[in-house]
Amino acid sequence: MSIGRGNSILASEITPEHVYLNRRQFMATAGLLAGGLAFGDFSSRQAFPLAGPRPQGDDKLTPWKDVTGYNNFYEFGTGKGDPKENAHTLRPHPWSVEIVGEVGKPGTYDFDDLIRPFTIEERVYRHRCVEGWSMVIPWMGFPLKDLIARLEPTSRAKYVEFVTLLDPEQMPGQRRRILEWPYVEGLRLDEAMNPLTLMVTGVYGKPLPNQNGAPLRLHVPWKYGFKSGKSLVRIRFRETQPQTTWNLAAPREYGFYANVNPHVDHPRWSQKRERRIGELFPRDTEIFNGYGDQVAYLYEGMDLRVHF
């Protein structure tokens, strides 16, 4: 699916009207209309483009109720409906993100200041979960590569690590040792710099709901969903590959790369088919979740059965 402007339409054509009309509320909530910048003058930037990529083929948008009511976020429980039920305890404002490691501009940044220099876009992306279900979601956000460029990683930075909030008071699922907390994920730097990799601040024209990882999450559309860390509080630039949560918990089942691949099954189930939420019949899984034209070059020469 292309993210180029050649396939663009008005966001109002792919987003329900009542959601589209909330855009100005979203902008105000995200701090996009405020003055004062962390990285430079924003006054000449377009605050919110009214265009986004067109869903292609049979990529019908997954309804809001499913996007926000059926997902994995173990910090609020292991059931698919638990995040919506329990995430009201999360306090996404105020929020800050710590930038550390091999980077020229480390520091702790207020969330509004961190995102303010960037144009928020609407991108329709496929989301594929390792359990076999998938969605098509109109995320709001900006390319991670734009943030990385402003933070000026050093020549030693080869990986980017993403860390979720650790606070059992706000995230009651962390009171159980289901996983090692906090939740940690990571990408190679070149994966993080791919134009598809998105820092997400909203969905369906609204600020990101708590259960979807408010106020800031990652989305890597060619990888299984567990790679996309939620409610991020720390971004670390590293010389070495980070140890990630699911890879530590079950290394035979969850590799570091986690690229969507119908030829590499999970040890307990096949990955050849997927069930699009809202559809009766499963469909064939596409390599790299259908984004091969944009990301396959990242893995040239690698054995994807070994580096799964």
Q: Which homologous superfamily in CATH is the superfamily?
A: Oxidoreductase, molybdopterin-binding domain
SSE topology string: EHHHEHHEEHEEHEEHEEEEHEEH
State the major sheet: 7 strands, mixed
* Class from helix and strand fractions: alpha+beta
Shape: globular
- Rounded mean pLDDT score: 86
Tell me the β content. Answer: 15-25%
CATH class value = Alpha Beta
Describe this structure in words.
The chain has helices at residues 11-14, 17-20, 23-30, 64-69, 82-86, 111-115, 144-151, 189-192, 245-249, 292-295, and strands at residues 8-10, 51-53, 96-101, 107-110, 121-128, 133-143, 159-164, 184-188, 198-203, 206-207, 217-219, 232-238, 273-276, 283-284. With 308 residues, it is an alpha+beta fold. It has one domain (5-124, 136-257): Oxidoreductase, molybdopterin-binding domain (Sulfite Oxidase, Chain A, domain 2), CATH 3.90.420.10. Strand 13 (273-276) and strand 14 form a beta hairpin. The longest helix has 8 residues, at 23-30.
Question: How do the helices and strands line up, and which of them pair or pack?
Answer:
Layout: E1 8-10, H1 11-14, H2 17-20, H3 23-30, E2 51-53, H4 64-69, H5 82-86, E3 96-101, E4 107-110, H6 111-115, E5 121-128, E6 133-143, H7 144-151, E7 159-164, E8 184-188, H8 189-192, E9 198-203, E10 206-207, E11 217-219, E12 232-238, H9 245-249, E13 273-276, E14 283-284, H10 292-295
Parallel strand pairs: 3-12, 6-13
Antiparallel strand pairs: 1-2, 3-4, 5-6, 6-9, 7-8, 7-12, 9-10, 9-11, 13-14
